[in-house]
Specification:
single chain, 338 residues, alpha/beta, Rossmann fold, 11 helices, 11 strands, binds S-adenosylmethionine, protein-glutamate O-methyltransferase, Bact_Chemotaxis_MeTrfase, CheR_N_sf, CheR_N, transferase
Length: 338
């Protein structure tokens, strides 16, 4: 049973307007399979009649349900490995070398899905920073259902088996029936908030590090550029952006310079919240490495789009973390590619 063309066009336009997600022709099957449970729940045997029923009114609850159903929430602990090694080995030392050191570190895990990414960041920082640094991790997603799961911090064996080193499992999780629950001290370090990347970051800005991984791939070029521009306004000058392995700022936004670590997925903000040029130099070379030289960026050929709503105050909290450092951060961590 195939989706009527007018229904697919409407859904693709809705998801593009509300979430920036691009659904090209050929994704009719995806739309139909993701929306069928919603249609059935609403008493419709077919997706066509369900969508035609909601499209005139566009009630917020219906729109949210449709948009959430069309997000892809694939994730895993320490996904792709090297960004977390770079966080511990390169980014934290570079931030610590700034004048005044690193008394406070603010990290944003944007598009965090079910929480494996922010908890992986928290586990990494538990070893990479000392008690002199308070850490705040703000984790956001458009999809409330995945955020609710993330905040619970309960993962099946299948999920913990994907990328979580057993030493980390033993240290940071406790058994919960046949599942594993993130220990309270780690859970308390992460604040989960609903946020749409099409809107301004609503948590006070000043981030030292932003993880924005495996979500730009769903956007078209103007949306990617608008999101990168917006993230830049949330950064401290000289802060670090970590993208997915298949994503880049190059050719999209010249506010960033590429830092040659983590298979090219790390970028440094040339300006920050106030649009000021960064007063700090890039990475200090760590003893075992050659000096790291930023890769030149290419000026953007695209125009910024999107609106910029008001900023609301931070809801994040700080936590002090221990100093010991596990060997797994120096070795590639088993990740999974998309
Ligand atoms: C593939 S997951 C990536 C999860 C994690 N960052 C990782 O790399 O493992 C993409 C996430 O982006 C979220 N997303 C999609 N569009 C979004 C938007 N406009 N604003 C915020 N989150 C969005 C989805 O809900 C989904 O959870």
């Amino acid at each position: 049973m195939s989706l009527a063309p007018d229904v697919f066009t409407y859904v693709a336009d809705l998801v593009q307007r509300r979430a920036g997600i691009q659904l090209d022709t050929g994704k009719e099957y995806l739309v139909e399979s993701r929306l069928l449970p919603l249609a059935q729940e609403a008493g419709h045997a077919r997706v066509d009649t369900y969508v035609r029923g909601i499209r005139g009114i566009e009630r917020p609850a219906d729109v949210q349900a449709v948009v959430e159903a069309l997000t892809t929430n694939e994730t895993s602990f320490f996904r792709d490995g090297s960004p977390f090694t770079a966080l511990a080995d390169d980014i934290v030392p570079a931030l610590r070398s700034r004048p005044g050191g690193l008394p406070r570190m603010r990290v944003w895990s944007a598009a965090c899905s079910t929480g494996q990414e922010p908890y992986s960041i928290a586990m990494t920082l538990a070893d990479a920073v000392g008690p002199e640094t308070s850490v705040e991790i703000v984790a956001t997603d458009l999809n409330q259902a995945v955020l609710d799961r993330a905040a619970q911090g309960v993962y099946s064996r299948l999920e913990t088996n994907r990328g979580l080193p057993s030493a980390m499992l033993v240290r940071h999780f406790e058994a919960d029936g046949t599942s594993w629950r993130v220990r309270e001290d780690l859970r308390r370090q992460v604040t989960f908030l609903r946020h749409n990347l099409l809107e301004s970051p609503p948590f006070g800005g000043g981030f030292d590090v932003v993880f924005l991984r495996n979500v730009l791939i769903y956007f078209d070029l103007p949306v990617k550029q608008a999101v990168l521009d917006r993230v830049l306004t949330a950064m401290r000058p000289g802060g670090y952006l970590v993208l997915g392995a298949a994503e880049t700022t190059i050719g999209l936004d010249d506010g960033w310079e590429r830092v040659p670590v983590a298979r090219g997925a790390v970028y440094r903000a040339l300006t920050g919240a106030a649009g000021t040029t960064s007063p700090v130099r890039p990475f200090l070379p760590t003893p075992a490495r050659a000096p790291l030289v930023p890769t030149p960026t290419v000026p953007s050929p695209f125009t910024t789009t999107g609106t910029v709503p008001a900023v609301v105050p931070s809801a994040a909290h700080a936590a002090f973390l221990p100093t010991a450092r596990p060997s797994h951060l120096s070795a590639p961590v088993r990740g999974e590619s998309r």
